[in-house]
Here is the input.
Amino acid sequence: MKIMTVCGSMKFINEMMEIAMKMELEGNCVLLPIFSPTRTKKDDFTDEEVIILDKMHRERIKLSDAILVVNVNGYIGKSTKSEIEFAKSLNKEIIYYTDLIN
Here is the structure.
């Protein structure tokens, strides 16, 4: 069993939920970003809220053995790139969604 944090663009929330379920059913503990059906873009949050949410997501990464990057069609945005670099700095395993579905 691994503890893994899902990282990726919120526009791929459906894929995040799907892969999280698959990984849980394989016996892993999966941590997901917090999301709201009514606030789907960073612009929907105050600057303070964005800082808090980013900090808490990094805490999830710290707790994890690995991150699972949901990179649909190879897309990795600026925030996700930053999360990958953070995970690498902590020697976390990086798993890519596109590697799992092929």
Observations:
- Strands lie at 3-8, 29-31, 66-70, 93-96.
- The CA atoms of residues 82 and 101 lie 23 Å apart.
- The radius of gyration is 13 Å.
